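User: Please look over both lines:
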Amino acid sequence: MKNKLTKTLFPISDKFLTSLKKDFFSKEQKNIVREKFISQADEWFRSSKLNYIKGWHKFPKIDIMLGCTHFIEATCLRYGWNIQHLPNEYAYYSINGKHSTDLDKLRENIPLIISLPSWQYCDIHPQWQEILNICEQKNIEIHIDGAWFQSARKIEFDFDHPNIKSFGMSIGKGLDLQWNRIGLRWSKQTVPDSITIMNKFNQIHETVIACGSYIMQHVEKDYAWNKYAAANLVLAKEHKLSQTNSIHVLKDKNNNLVGVGKLLSSS
């Protein structure tokens, strides 16, 4: 399987990324205070030169979270799971009994969680402007799961919209760094949920924070595309596939997703 195209979208797992885990646990690490980590991570997420993101300034409340699953769970629980998501989202929602809602069937006043970039499209949702218009008309809050930004390029997006209330990003999606699940949530205001409580009472474990800091010191934000852009293009041409904006994903002529994480990792 290591040297084949796959239906599963495996992350990039090269020797350098694998060595980080060993190196971190083999060395004595200093504790990183919460405020310093937030500043470091905020700067790191914003440092991408391959994506063009605006509107960060509208979200002054920044909290540490344990990956984007934590972001989703905290948001869903805050609303008693009275949330909506569109088709082609992660299986996480259906596993928890939440079926998708078609765009034209979105209900008034029920929050919407949406991934950006979407794993299915490897880009902004193709109906994004329509989504915004409907959410404006129906008073629907929007919460954005930005897990795949770590493996993305060419995403142009402005968070400065009145219906967007929060967004989260994690450091590991698309790269084999999920042995340490950590990221940030940006919100327009303080909200009562598990992420807020865990930050207020310093309940995010110091080892997780130190590890996240260590990873960001050694892995640049655009690591995957900077290292594997040429190899990704070669694979696309060799297998007559189309490139996407996610480094570990190509598409066939029928628009099906094809995983190339294993091939890139061994290149």
Observations:
- The first helix runs from residue 15 to 26.
